[in-house]
Amino acid sequence: MKRLLFLFTCLLIGVFCQKGPNNPDPLPPAPDLIRTLPDTSIIEGGIDAIPEYDAIRIEWIDRPIYEKYALYRKAANEDVFLLLHFSPAGDSAFTDMINISLNTRYYYYLKGMDENGNWSAPSDTLNYLLIPKVNNLVYSTSDSSFYWSRQEIPPRSFIVKLFTKADNRLVWRCQIEPIYHQSVQYVKFNVDGTAKQQLQSGIWYIWRIDSVGPAQNSGSESGWNSFKPDVNFYL
Q1: Mean pLDDT of the chain
Q2: Handedness of CA 80, 85, 89, 95 (dihedral sign)
């Protein structure tokens, strides 16, 4: 009997030593935020502007070890990071529209929580700065040109992105410098000879203007415009 009691006591001590305060569960690894992709990328991803709103989209790699995510943010003029949003397992993105100001840089990091309730260390900190969008997008059938009104302060460059509306297939992508002495900007279709096909009558197309900001990780994306060769309107 004494021998059984001794063995049971040793077992309890062993369990306590493995899970006691001096030997806690190992912390899960820090999650991975996805960095900003090049402005000329066709596939959107990472931390970036979006066409629909003045907002910043943050993306990360979702891993099965996490039960929950916590996203933190601070603006350039703020001293500390504050909790911005909880995301459940399976989520891999969040669109930040919460009190976003233009021309202000925002910094973000992410933590992941495992099934035991342990929070990871912070991810790398990424940042982005939104600038105003261009507006008044118009496609002119008469001269096969795209027109838009630029921001008060011109960006470093504009990127025209043109797709077929039915299947979102890339037709043309062109990066140009601003015309600084006028507010209305324009570019003729396929001026650089890189279009993948000519525009066809009876086909709907969508296009927008991405503005490349004055500093790294900064910019904006206009709303989409839709047209056929003889019709033009906003989505």
Answers
A1: 89
A2: negative
CA-to-CA separations, 45 to 9, 35, 40, 189, 200, in angstroms, rounded: 56, 8, 12, 26, 30
Strands 93-96 and 82-88: unpaired
Q: Provide the pLDDT confidence category of residue 190 given band limits of 50, 70 and 90.
A: very high
Q: Which residue has the tokens 């820090």?
A: 30
Residue 22 has pLDDT above 50, yes or no: yes
**Residue 171, CA distances (Å) to 91, 163, 190, 200 in order:** 31, 5, 10, 11
CB 57 within 8 A of CB 192: no
Q: Considering the entire predicted model, what is its pTM?
A: 0.85
DSSP 8-state code for residue 145: E
Q: Which residues of 33-57 are buried (b: 16+ CB within 10 A; e: fewer)?
A: bbebeebeeeeeebbbbbbebebbb
Name the pLDDT band for 205 (thresholds 50, 70, 90): very high
